[in-house]
Design goal:
By secondary structure, this protein is α/β, with parallel strands linked by helices. The chain contains 18 helices and 17 strands. 37% of the residues lie in helices and 18% in strands. Helix 6 packs parallel to helix 8. Adenosine monophosphate binds next to helix 3.
Length: 457
Amino acid sequence: MPSFHQLELSTAMLSTLEQLGYQRPTPVQASAIPPILAGRDVIAMAKTGSGKTAAFGIGLLEHLNVRHFAVQGLVLCPTRELADQVAKALRELARSIANVKILTLCGGVAIGPQIGSLSHGAHLVVGTPGRVQDHLRKGTLVLDHLKTLVLDEADRMLDMGFRDAMDDIIGQLPGQRQTLLFSATWPESIRTLSEQYQRDPVDVRVADSEPAPDIDEQFYEIQPGQQADALAALLSLHRPGSCIAFCTTRQQCDELAEILNERGFNALALHGDLDQKDRDAVLVRFANQSVAVLLATDVAARGLDIKSLPLVVNVEPARDTEVHTHRVGRTGRAGEQGRAVTFCTPAQAHRVNRLEAARDGDLAWGDTGALLATPDRPVAPPMRTLCVAGGRKDKVRPGDLMGALTGEAGLPGDAVGKIDLFDFQCFVAIRSELAQKALKRLENGRIKGRRFRVRLV
Ligand code: AMP
């Protein structure tokens, strides 16, 4: 690992880092700081704790011209908590540069004082997309001289439904700028975002953030008709917060979902026969972690943009090896431990044999008798979904919902999960134990000064 001295930082910055007790750059800093200082766009996979804030913070401050009184850097964050944290970190890093003004612009607090602060000028702005958009619209925030845009926790911003707001904001920035994108995960949607807004970005993925997938794969021989029992037993044994069970037909999806629900497991079916609205609702509820088990056909599962699942089950072995690999690849991503289980009846043995032939090692077979002896112990999903009968067409935005939920004496920001906005409704994931409280808040409170019908799905 290089030292900070090798990264060609200013003496002021080096002395600040020393005061802060940072001895060496973290892996993300070592890889991201040189291209950032060189003015390149960077896309970095980095989680909280990786030192990502200092990686872009050092870049923002080293590029800053304090004598030029204009907003030169903008950091967009998904939540107020993160924005406050980032602003605090930037202020610490800026301690040996005189007169740097760093402002936070987040929703949930009065806009007036922010307008006042903006009128005195600022060098760096850290904010949430909704409120930044408000200031741009009012003309109280001017970004004509922006040099660097940072999208922090970009995956979470997308999850929270900020895509429209981000598009709107970025559309108003100078085309000549540096764009730094930080994301803990790497779904398709992040790659699309990067392609749209970055120029020839340097890809920073540090080795330890993406180890080889670690998937524990097991096979069970079962008799025809035992699928539901075997699945219930498996869920009771491993109790995953979320799981996809792949089925061959839509009848199988529906039947298994019905049986599992009767037995207390929180299950939904996803297949090609659902109309668009039901399909959206199923996808939303599964992706936001308020459904424990999804019974899906291969084709229907294609639309799922989920990061990683603790458990994938093949209710029947896939007919071809490639499909099997694709299904199993939905678990054990991003360095998490994954588990894939395949049930196989004697008549389906040839499919599994083919799979075995395509691999080097033997397959691991579990003890079906022991599995089936597991009593039902359904696990509750971590989140619940609130459906609000207002959407884009009602000008409802994610920040308005966050504001209504987390405002004064409300819920903590981390109680709110994914926010999915549609034209006439939106879905908000809330940690299960706080779902009733959230429902009451929204029922009794107002969103954008209006009351909307709200229900727990
Ligand atoms: P972050 O991933 O940006 O949330 O940072 C995680 C924590 O690591 C923060 O408390 C930073 O102050 C700290 N930190 C960042 N860079 C370094 C470094 N090079 N050496 C020691 N601590 C650091």
